Amino acid sequence: YALSPTSLTSLVKNFLQPDDLFGRWGGEEFIIILKDKTLLEATELAAEKLRNIIENHSFRFAGHMTFPKL
Prior knowledge:
- By secondary structure, the chain is an alpha+beta fold.
- The protein contains 2 helices and 4 strands.
- A two-stranded antiparallel sheet has the order 1-4. A two-stranded antiparallel ribbon has the order 2-3.
- It is globular.
């Protein structure tokens, strides 16, 4: 079973500032680039806040999905 990719994307994009970047990095990993943030702000404040938002969100499952090989 898989999460609807748009639900996670929308959740993260609503959290980010307009200048921040968010994308897929590899298969199941994501990358977030927070512009104008110190390492402390990015790790202890933004990352922890985003982790809590994702943890407490009720995701809809997309069901079984098979992705074609490229």
